[in-house]
Amino acid sequence: MATHDCDSQPGLRPYLDARHEMLAHLEAITGSDTLALEHSLNRILADDIHSPIDVPSFANSAMDGYALRAADVTDDVGLTLIGTSLAGHPFNDRVGPGECVRIMTGAALPLGADTIVMQENCRSEHNVIYPQGPVTEGRHIRLPAEDLAQGERVFAAGTRINARVLSVLSSLGLEQIYVRRPLTVALISTGDELKNPGELLAPGDIYDSNRIGIGAMLERLGIRVIDYGIIKDDPMLIRQAFLKAATEADALITSGGVSVGDADYTKQVLEEVGRIGFWKLAVKPGKPFAFGHIGDCPFFGLPGNPVSAAVTFHLMVRPALATLAGETLKPTPLLQARALMPFKKSPGRMDFQRGMVGTQADGSLGVVTAGAQSSAVYSAMAEANCLLHLEQDRGNVAEGEMVTLELIDGLYW
Ligand code: AMP
Ligand code: MG
């Protein structure tokens, strides 16, 4: 893989270009399991799902009211009430001319009836029902297969089973679901300065936040994490950890050590024990992101700065993991919002600034910064509900200009 040059910062790969190339070098894992439906949340469908039944499987009422024949309804003529149809307790006789049946939402439509009239639109006197106002034939009836027809493809292989998908799978009566096996990812933090929560900080130390934060994102994606802990800035220890992880996991994610500092060994070791695909993206934050392989194991080297790590995880690693897991990702919807303040931006790298977007009084979207935009300031990342997509070649954004953004709340992070 050759590295590209872009005008202002030689050696930096434009983001979409790098992503495209990375995905072309990844293949889905093999291996699938059959799981009980209730254990399949967050797994990826290994096969298309076809509906074994019509949903709904019988005509039923969408309202509480009366089932009748629309042709029988004329001004102030009453219909004789001959029974009741409740959900789970159908009325087993026929509705004949001049008759009606009391019916509740979800109850089966009795034979002979073709229309439901809401109870709010009926007057009742001694078992005789008087529908008020005009009645339209077929009204308030849910038809068989109106939602899904037997044999119809409901979900394609590659669909992630979220709570909504799970709900539909349940409505089909499926007990067992054929899903891809979950990915196993090895997670490594590198840095002599890093400490675990609860440990005392010596001068110059900081707490490791990347491994916990990225680990949480992986967990929310249904991925099994092998936690390699914190590895010191020692090429021999890093080499050992990389080689071991590459045999144990479907992918290896590291943070730190990918810049050009004196203690940055990640890229060097990757070159020694594996092969580097590319290094350095034309993005901000996250420029030093590295991608490669150790043997067959894909390698993702996140920058150490926590914001850079999270943003490059989202931009690069999330789609890569989807490809590995056999998941079909839907395109991210991009929105346009008005900048309610100026945003600083230099041409050369695509800038994913952290923002707060909201609906204005006139209904349009407006965005402000979520706080300091340094890649070391994670609090603004936690505050943000969107990432701005400021194009690689653009400069400053003036107040009032339109900008592109993506929503990030409610995702996996
Ligand atoms: P590096 O990429 O190793 O040069 O690190 C860049 C910056 O990120 C430095 O300020 C590091 O201390 C910080 N950093 C590296 N790894 C972590 C981590 N796991 N959690 C929090 N900060 C980190
Ligand atoms: Mg470091």
C-alpha-based Rg, rounded: 30 Å
The set of bound ligands, ions and cofactors reads:
adenosine monophosphate, magnesium ion
For the termini, the CA-CA separation is: 31 Å
Summing up helix and strand content along with how strands pair, one would put the structural category as alpha/beta
Helix content: 10-25%
Task: Give me the side-by-side strand order of the main sheet.
Answer: 7-4-6-5-9-8
Sheet-strand content, in percent, reads: 25-35%
Q: How many β-strand stretches?
A: 27
Mean pLDDT: 96
**C-alpha geometry:** elongated
**How many helical elements?**
7
Low-confidence stretches: 1-8
Q: What characterizes the major β-sheet? A: 6 strands, mixed
Structural overview:
This protein is α/β, with parallel strands linked by helices and 413 residues long. It is 19% helix and 28% strand. The strands form eight sheets. A six-stranded mixed beta sheet has the order 7-4-6-5-9-8, with no helix packed on it. Helix 1 runs parallel beside helix 6. The two termini are 31 Å apart. The N terminus is likely disordered. Magnesium ion binds next to loops. The site of magnesium ion has 7 residues, from loops.
